[in-house]
Amino acid sequence: MAGIKTLGQFILEKQADFPYAKGELSRLLRDIGIAAKIVNREVNKAGLVDILGDVGSVNVQGEEQKKLDVFANTQFIAALTCGGECCIVGSEEEDEFIAIDSPVSVDAKYIVCIDPLDGSSNIDCNVGVGTVFSVLRRKSVEGKATLADVLQRGTEQVAAGYVVYGSSTMLVYTTGKGVNGFTLDPSIGEFCLSHPDMKIPANGKIYSINEGNYMNFPEGVKKYLHYAQSTDQATNRPYTARYIGSMVADIHRNLIKGGIYIYPTTTCSQDGKLRLMYECNPMAFIVEQAGGKASDGFRRIVDIEPKDLHQRTSIYIGSKEMVEMVEGFLAEDKAASGLKVKVG
Ligand code: P6P
Q1: Nearest CA to ligand 1 atom 2
Q2: pTM for the whole thing?
Q3: Ligand 1-lining residues (CB < 6 angstroms)
Q4: Is the predicted pLDDT of residue 138 greater than 50, yes or no?
Q5: Which tens digit of pLDDT belongs to each residue from 163-178?
Q6: SS3 helix, strand, coil % of the chain, rounded to 5?
Q7: Which domains can be identified in the chain, with CATH numbers?
Q8: DSSP states of 292-320
């Protein structure tokens, strides 16, 4: 074990950074890591067992639930229930939040918002998928935690992370003191520190967006894409398009190589497609901690005041200079459309 630092060892070591920590958050992160290993086992053998395909039900998002969606959801809720540190789970797969009511969770003070398996439409064709989680501390001090405890801005997150089930399985998380990545070593069944203190390059040449929606994009996004696709050696253009339909995998690649992931509003998704509480907020916390930027085109994602557990938002996330570039085009477009209204 010389030189190997497991997730559990790392969490305990970093617990010392929080003088008042009593180990609850450490145990919560451990519980999430356990569920991630169980989900990984099923994702990795999908195709060999009857875990592919649709369940035949639709979730609150109106999306076909895959067997693995339901399996992952069940595993994370079970792990958080047994762990005793979580009082509420808000899941993409559950219409309402789940109040954890178990003898071991009586004093639980953490809330976990989670997308148990993001990008699950890719599972049946063996493309990378992911889990995203956000950890909040309940604000109420007595009685049962309520939705008001869940609907907190992203700036209130105490931890956030994702698991990417790809060519290898990685867990990446932050507690507000930097970002660290752990790769699962199946031979010992442990996540081992492989990417300490992750930082996203300030600039990059990868952009991730579903250009099939081009005709419905805001003008500022169209102008940014024209900029990205124009030739200019001094600024490394044209950029490269990389989009695999799994936000976690796209953002993870961009975190390592530099790049931007964009899911803007479109006529079909007037508020954007990605969910604020369990996709955008956690990814924004991680990317900002790694030195990047995450906005809805005009304001920080983590400043958005949530009104609903399944609220959606547009998202522009990744290398700081790339996000600022597209925000510039959006601001120009907004000013121009404002002028049109005035002149009109
Ligand atoms: P589209 C997966 O459903 C997801 O939430 C993200 O992981 C992914 O980037 C996006 O939606 C794909 O959506 O509309 O491009 O198929």
Answers
A1: 119
A2: 0.94
A3: 118-119, 210, 245-247, 273-274
A4: yes
A5: 999 889 999 999 999 9
A6: 40, 25, 35
A7: 7-195 (3.30.540.10), 206-343 (3.40.190.80)
A8: -EEESSSSBGGG----STT-B--EEEESH
The token pair at 307 is: 């009104």
Q: For residues 72-90, give the mean pLDDT.
A: 95
How far away, in angstroms, is 4 Cα from ligand 1 center? 35
* pLDDT score for 344: 39
Q: Given ligand 1 and candidates 118, 121, 208, 250, which is best to mutate, with the most ligand atoms within 8 Å of its CB? A: 118
Distance from residue 245's CA to the centre of ligand 1 (Å): 5
Per-residue DSSP letter, 133: E
Q: How far is the CA of 214 from the centre of ligand 1 (A)?
A: 15
pLDDT, tens digit (0-9, with 9 covering 90-100), for 183-193: 999 999 999 99
Segment among 42-46, 74-78, 236-240 with least mean pLDDT: 42-46
315: β partners? 263
Distance 136 CA to ligand 1 centre (A): 25
